[in-house]
User: Fold Polysaccharide deacetylase from Caballeronia arvi.
Amino acid sequence: MISKTALKKILARGITSFRVDVASRKLLWRDRVAVLLYHDPKPDTLDYHLTYLKSFCDVVPLAHVASPGSGRPRAAITLDDGAAGNADLLPVFIKHNVRPTIFLCSQIVGRPTMHWWLHPGAKQAGIERLKRMSNAERLAELGKYGYHQTHEGDGTGLTAGQIEAMRPFVDFQAHTRFHPILTRCNDRECEQEISVCKSELESMLGTECEHFAYPNGNYTDREVGFVKAAGYKSARTCDLGWNDSRSDPYRLKTIVIDDDATLWWFAAQLTGIPVFLRYVRHARNFSGYSPQF
Ligand SMILES: [Zn+2]
Assistant:
């Protein structure tokens, strides 16, 4: 039986040896914007990813997603969740002159609360199982293991001081209050998570919060409606693809990058092929949920 790591290596070598990565840049990526999605990469990893990326691509802010291209591939760097480790990336952003967008959960950053899936109880209960429950069931189940979303203790998000230090170099935007799976929330929970997050972040940051990212990539027309009604100008999904001026601003597409991707795997992931194969293998629709199975 071949291990997952070995399969990844074979796929990555195949893609780069046959120059599929170069061909996909010409045929698929062109001068559109690849919105790369990270979570909590190590500074060294992000450093060599950005060095490689800049050798053939312009790295642009997320807000430029609908601007006309110049013929070169473009990429925007986004990080979801506001993990505490993101603070260590600041020297890398400055070194590469890259302005990333970090999507924050307004009730998890700036206070000692936890991202729910990082609580030991979430692992015991099964993270993917919890994602499939209704929001109330998930919270009740986590409560059995001692997790309560407003309880303070060990913090897993960026502190207020870290956010303040990063603000001149980072675009902070919205990713709900507590990171529920929005499609498992009732209407009221869903609307509150989307709209209250905006006002809470705006009062924390003192600037307008215009962009949103759907937690875990889960959304339907209902979530899109709430995002529009709350006054956001765009929203990023986890749907595979590239973006240009014709893209739906409330369904921006993404290339998910593994936080620990080797250079070979990073080059392979930029083609979109690994995620595409996961979709095909699991015979699922291509939109509205995260491609992590
Ligand atoms: Zn997230």
Observations:
- The chain has one domain: 4-113+152-282.
- The chain has a mean pLDDT of 93.
- The pocket of zinc ion is lined by residues 80-81, 175, 179, 215 (CB under 6 Å).
- The CA atoms of residues 213 and 236 lie 5 Å apart.
